[in-house]
Specification:
Number of helices: 2
Shape: rod-shaped
Oligomer: single chain
Strand order of the largest sheet: 1-2
Helix content: 40-55%
Number of strands: 4
């Protein structure tokens, strides 16, 4: 509350300012952990979607050609994908962990991150 001073000016007391700072600090303390959790959930959702899209493209390539592609760029050049998405967890487009078959074709793709997801399963095993 603004109170008139002896000189006729109005302002806030130190106690009022401390209460406002305390309230803002409490709100920030509550908001920061939920924001960090939301970022992690968004990265994990993007990882799931990127893996599903690339695995579907690998399966489509195998269904059409009878073999898996030798590299991920083949999926782009043959128009199964528009681009190779980046791994949202490791933030590296070339950082995908690739599983190959006996002929060297890529039959599965996974995250190259060593971190563990919020479901306690390593991202490499998703």
């Amino acid at each position: 509350m603004a109170r008139p001073s002896q000189s006729g000016e109005t302002g806030f007391t130190v106690a009022e300012m401390l209460v406002v700072i305390l309230i803002v600090g409490l709100l920030a303390a509550v908001a920061v952990p939920s924001i960090n959790g939301a970022i992690t959930r968004a990265e994990e959702a993007a990882l799931r979607e990127n893996l599903a899209v690339m695995r579907r493209a690998l399966d489509d390539h195998f269904a059409d050609k009878g073999r898996y592609p030798q590299d991920l760029e083949t999926l782009v050049s043959e128009r199964y994908l528009r681009f190779i998405p980046a791994d949202p967890v490791s933030e590296d487009a070339a950082g995908w962990a690739l599983t190959t078959d006996d002929s060297g074709g890529i039959e599965d793709v996974g995250s190259a991150s060593d971190a563990t997801g919020s479901n306690d399963i390593p991202y490499r095993e998703w």
